[in-house]
Design goal:
By secondary structure, this protein is an alpha/beta fold. It is built from 19 helices and twelve strands. β2 and β3 form a beta hairpin. The protein is elongated and about 90 Å long.
């Protein structure tokens, strides 16, 4: 009982240390970006880092140009103009919409230009520019076959309506769900919402006017129903961290110039509509044209997998030996590490390393954060595999090695570890295969691995299922090859063991 209490106390201490490093609240995290520092950072680095969720045509989406990914849309053009007026280069970070606020508050991005509406809740966390484009209302996107069935908001009683998590439409649905008897379904990507609509998982998707009309125009199977949900339509603005008045002033100056020339209606929106029409044509959205996307994603997936396996093996050995150590302190540290990492979701760990630890380590790349998080998580599971393997070796083997004059280190190296490795090889193989698939989780922080690139293909081609099928086949081929390699080495170990 006392031992259990000590372990629980150590775990609570570890949790408190993680919590102390994490922003305590939205208000606290917003203070991490000091007043008046973002503009200086932009000028010093010579680039403007813009965060957006590039799945929201015609405001921001992707297009394949000569096999390479290109961000296009109204918001992209505005971002280019702001960067030009500031005299710096533009860098776009594509991530889930509901991750943008955290990224801005922690300094991962300089501004948000992603069709974001300046609601009172968001204003508590960040500042906004003036409205650069205002929409009159929202629309329900439905299947054209249900056009006669759904004619108004009240038609969706006891029906499931989807919206992008973190968006104004999602907030509106949640607010009015009980009034209209609507079941709300939130997903991070609009491409996934439309795929859910076409597969019958949701009955409608609530989108902003411009976004909804653009999808309906480019997809003949969709139709629109005007929403009457009570939600003030304030339009879209640029999000900026608190206390950056000089940056807000510069952005407003650019917006005023664009509005004065009516660039949004005369140039930006027509250009985005043209790009969407080209992307949605059968000639342009062939999967063969996006082979480079999948190849790039596979490359990053393999980098993450290999690096994470190395980190996981090193940490696994260290913490397995620490847990088997007679030192109470080392044992307690190992138990806390293993139990905490195995007891928390890997997605949360990835977000914590990137946004939380990233606040302490400036300019921590998303790829590095993803590798660290997955490697740390893998280390906890590998440690338990190795510990079980060491325990499976007969104690007589250790005693015999020590009686022959071998040191403890040499005993482990030449006697214990080889036998333990053979016993736990299948378990380690399963961990490596799982780790390969878990690498897809880092797409949430904008790492261009396979699932991230698959999402870009879905947005660019307006085809939801086919890119997923290709990604699934790629994952299968990779894991199948890995399985065969692991089985080969297992046979070699068994053959060597039988000879000795």
């Amino acid at each position: 009982m006392k031992k259990l209490l000590k372990i629980l106390t150590a775990l609570l201490l570890l949790v408190s240390l993680f919590t102390a490093a994490q922003p305590a609240s939205v208000d606290a995290s917003s203070k991490k970006v000091a007043s008046g520092t973002v503009m200086k950072k932009i000028k010093k680095s010579g680039k403007l880092v813009v965060g957006m969720s590039a799945d929201y045509p015609p405001l921001e989406f992707t297009k394949s140009v000569n096999g390479k990914n290109k961000y296009v849309g109204v918001d992209v053009e505005l971002a280019k103009q702001i960067a030009k007026d500031l005299g710096v280069k533009l860098e776009i970070k594509n991530m889930d919409f509901d991750s943008l606020l955290v990224a801005l508050e922690t300094g991962k991005i300089d501004v948000i230009i992603s069709g974001m509406t300046p609601t009172s809740e968001r204003k508590k966390s960040i500042d906004f520019s003036k409205i650069y484009y205002a929409e009159k209302s929202d629309y329900f996107v439905i299947s054209k076959t249900n056009k006669a069935k759904y004619t108004s908001t009240s038609s969706f009683k006891n029906k499931t309506v989807g919206a992008q998590t973190g968006s104004l439409q999602y907030t509106s649905l949640k607010k009015n769900a009980s009034k209209y008897g609507i079941k709300v379904k939130g997903l991070a990507k609009i491409s996934n919402l439309l795929m859910a609509l076409k597969s019958g998982k949701v009955d409608a998707v609530l989108l902003g006017e411009l976004n909804a009309k653009t999808y309906a125009t480019n997809d003949s199977s969709l139709s629109l129903v005007k929403s009457s949900l009570s939600q003030a339509q304030m339009g879209n603005a640029v999000g900026v961290a608190k206390g950056q008045s000089d940056l807000v002033k510069a952005i407003n100056k650019t917006i005023n110039a664009c509005q004065k020339k009516d660039l949004f209606n005369k140039k930006y929106i027509p250009a985005a509509a043209k790009a969407m029409k080209q992307a949605s044509s059968k000639k342009s959205n062939s999967m063969s044209k996006y082979a480079g996307y999948f190849a790039t994603g596979l490359g990053y997936t393999m980098i993450i997998t290999v690096c994470s396996i190395i980190i996981g093996l090193i940490l696994g050995v260290i913490f397995a030996l620490m847990r088997l150590s007679k030192s109470k302190l080392l044992h307690a540290i190992a138990v806390c590490y293993i139990e905490f990492l195995r007891g928390t979701p890997q997605m949360v760990q990835i977000m914590f390393v990137y946004f939380g630890v990233g606040m302490l380590i400036k300019n921590l790349p998303a790829l590095a954060a993803g590798i660290i998080a997955i490697g740390l998580n893998s280390g906890a599971y590998v440690a338990e595999d190795i510990r079980s393997g060491i325990n499976s070796v007969d104690k007589g083997q250790t005693e015999a090695a020590r009686s022959l004059g071998l040191s403890q280190a040499k005993t482990y190296r030449y006697v214990v570890f080889p036998q333990a490795l053979k016993n736990i090889w299948p378990a380690l193989g399963n961990e490596f295969i799982t780790l390969t698939k878990d690498s897809s989780l880092v797409s949430t922080i904008g790492v261009g691995e396979l699932m991230y690139e698959t999402g870009l293909v879905q947005t660019a081609t307006y085809r939801g299922v086919m890119p997923l099928c290709i990604a699934m086949c790629i994952y299968f081929v990779v894991t199948f090859i890995l399985t065969r390699l692991l089985n080969y080495f297992e046979r070699r170990m068994n053959l060597t063991s039988s000879r000795t």
